[in-house]
Write a structure and sequence with these properties.
By secondary structure, the protein is mainly α. It has one domain. About 75% of the residues lie in helices and about 0% in strands. It has nine helices and no strands. Helix 6 packs across helix 9. The protein is elongated and about 75 Å long.
Length: about 230
Amino acid sequence: MNIFGAFTFGSLIKTFLPGFVWLIAIVVLFWDFSDTLGLPPELWPQLLTKDQALIVLAIPGSILLGLLSNILVFMGLNDRLVRSPMHRKYAALYGLLEELKRRVREQCWDRLAPQTNLDRTLFFSDTIDPEIILLERMGVEKLAYVREQYWYHLEFQLNLMLSLIVLFLALIIATIIRIGFCAGIGYIVLCAVLGCVFSIWLLTSARKNYCRHLAKMASLMTALLSAPPKPPET
């Protein structure tokens, strides 16, 4: 996970927008639990009069919440919801990529001869990342181009899915507090349905992007391993 990537490509899309949704959900919860938290009633009218300061504070706040959401996603949600299911569903593609990675490591291992004091088992584990080898040989721009096509969109979709789930939960809680469960059952069901629909849609898109990312990385590994074409004879 590239945290500092949030300040380049993802500042407005991958990190900021999901973080802004998180911010809205938190404000909704604070509004509904203001009495429980002991917040004075005049606090909200006073805050609304300082709209420019709120906008300035909302930008770094959204980025920070987006980064925290990104951490939650890559602590386990990405593996559980995207990587592991897609590795099982597209086992042949995943196996092809793993074999190409092994060959990249094998090529580097041969060029390191003599391999005295080098642990072959450790070298062929995930400690040596073939993507870093791609970065060194192909340059940052080419590798970033591939990642921006699919991987960054995957991060955005998972972060947005998580933030929307939190937002709809906040709206359900707000409905129960304001008008009661029975009176607000229609709004509660609507929020639950919308949350499920958006979550399924974003998760499906994220899984498709991950599969395309695997295919692109396999293509890059192939380009790295393949011999350059011979120049045409004159």
